[in-house]
Design goal:
Oligomer: single chain
CATH architecture of the largest domain: Sandwich
Radius of gyration: 50 Å
Number of domains: 4
Distance between the termini: 137 Å
Strand order of the largest sheet: 3-11-10-5-6-7
Largest sheet: 6 strands, mixed
Strand content: over 45%
Number of strands: 28
Shape: rod-shaped
CATH superfamily of the largest domain: Immunoglobulins
CATH topology of the largest domain: Immunoglobulin-like
Order of helices and strands: EEEEEEEEEEEEEEEEEEEEEEEEEEEEH
Length: 358
């Protein structure tokens, strides 16, 4: 934008002259270099003074007046006066005066506007994420000019946040706070905070964040598949738990049965049943959870019954062997006694060779 001031005066010959000073407004990023220009028309050698927003004289007819090496006179002609300001800061912002001293003093102001682009925002955890509770997160952009715009995003969708803004001199600090309910499945979920600003050299700057959800330790997951054959193939497969109802977290999808986060309350025998028009078949599965996070699985209760039966059989066999041994010992002793009695009481010696069973 340019504004022209027309300065009218008469010389000693009463001839009308038009003298003009044109100052150009400048916008620059903080840390950059600004060029402040004053354009002259019909310049006759009058004094030209350039002043900063605090009305301190920077240059007097091209000669430095203020000891600030960031300002340099780069051009002084009858048509254009130009200075540069390096390493611009927000404190340099304001109106720079181009003054032309004639019989009356006239000036024009070149406005310097300094933009401050935001850095990548930061994420502050205001409240830890606990299963079944809420997570409170705040995205902060501590410094920008003008105020930056913040957005929370998750899975490509914006999350509404509570925005706040604080003015710090000529710059602004902005923040956006969200509160979101969290479950165990949200652990590791990706969120992002995006900052938008006209001074950015890219469309946006992004801070990525992953939820860290705290939850109590639990067991593993169980997945069972009921393999069915038949002609025609049974389509109706039913899952049940013997003498109990299926757990709340049980998920059934056709022949597949799943339980997440196993605990000892899931102990029991699960039954898979399939049926077609020509018959019915079933199989069972016994689950024993003996420690959080550890699972002992068996396809049926038969192995435990076999082990118990074998032990019982061994004990019974030992007892039987002892009984038989004792019985045989008693029988043998009784036979000798009977033989002796027969021999002593009989008249025929040949009768002593007979055996008598007790």
């Amino acid at each position: 934008m340019a504004v022209i001031i027309m300065i009218l005066y008469y010389n000693h010959m009463n001839t009308l002259f038009i003298r003009a000073v044109q100052a150009e407004n400048v916008t620059v990023y903080e840390g950059g270099t600004a060029q402040i220009s004053c354009r002259l028309q019909n310049y006759d050698g009058s004094i030209v003074v350039i002043q900063n927003p605090r009305r301190q004289t920077l240059f007097f007819n091209g000669t430095r007046a203020l000891k600030d090496d960031r300002f340099q006179m780069v051009l002084f002609t009858t048509r254009l006066v130009r200075i540069t300001l390096t390493n611009v800061s927000v404190s340099d912002e304001g109106g720079y005066f181009c003054q032309l001293y004639t019989d009356a003093t006239h000036h024009q102001v070149a406005t310097l506007l300094v933009l401050v682009p935001p850095d990548t925002p930061t994420v502050e955890v205001k409240q830890d994420a606990v299963e079944g509770g809420e997570s409170e997160l705040t995205c902060v952009s501590p410094r920008s000019k003008p105020a930056a715009t913040l957005k929370w995003m998750r899975n490509g969708k914006e999350i509404s946040g509570v925005a706040s803004q604080q003015e710090n001199g000529k710059t602004f600090s902005v923040s956006s706070t969200i509160r979101i309910p969290v479950e165990r499945k949200d652990n590791g979920a990706a969120l992002s905070c995006e900052v938008y600003h006209p001074a950015l050299d890219v469309p946006k700057r992004v801070r990525h964040y992953r939820l860290d959800v705290y939850f109590a330790p639990t067991g593993d997951s169980l997945s069972l598949t009921c393999s069915v054959t038949g002609n025609p193939l049974p389509l109706n497969i039913q899952w049940s738990k013997i003498n109990d109802t299926l757990p709340e977290r049980a998920e059934i999808s056709g022949p597949t049965f799943q339980i997440s986060r196993l605990s000892q309350s899931h102990n029991g025998t699960y039954l898979c049943q399939a049926q077609n028009d020509y018959g019915r078949a079933a199989d069972h599965y016994t689950l024993l959870v003996y420690d959080p996070g550890a699972v002992v699985e068996t396809h049926s209760a038969v192995p435990y019954a076999v082990i118990g039966g074998v032990l019982a059989l061994l004990v019974f066999t030992v007892i039987c062997v002892l009984i038989v041994t004792i019985w045989c010992s008693v029988r043998q002793k009784g036979s000798y006694l009977t033989h002796e009695e027969a021999f002593l009481n009989g008249n025929d010696a040949s009768q002593g060779k007979k055996e008598y069973l007790l």
